[in-house]
User: What shape does this take?
Amino acid sequence: AFCKNSEDVRLIPKLLAECGVRLVIVEHLAGTKVDGATLRLEDRSPVIVLSLRYDRIDSFWHTLMHEIGHILNEDWEVVDSNLVGEDATASVEKPVSENKADEFAVEFLVPQGPLQTFVNNHSPLYNARDIQGFAQVHHVHPGIVVGQLHHVGELKYNQFREFLDKVRL
Assistant: This one.
């Protein structure tokens, strides 16, 4: 339930630090499509780097959880580009390790079985109330639900943008 509110983003550095994971947030490097990276320091401490290429709640949480997926899979020294947004790399074009990290992220954030049921019951006539209700039941920010619906093509990228809160303070 820690990804239910936009304000919860500020709690993440401390939470990760308590788990021994360092989080570094950097400005997006102009001209690149780098979203995040995972590496280990010489003392084997994990480090997650996020660029905030897209300053949106859906992008932040997906990229963070994707990088945590790499750590859990002991898949080190990874630089991830085009994870989210209209230019996201298709699953069929990604290595297995990237798809595993994506699958971890989407399932951790929104259980995919209930999301598919939601899609089956509402597609193509989505409305804000139903999206908010689904998000509330699953203890996530509605922007995360919208982001996943964007990614799977259920919503156009210009739909329900009002839910995509910024994460920069």
Summary: Residues 25 and 50 are 5 Å apart (CA to CA). The radius of gyration is 16 Å.
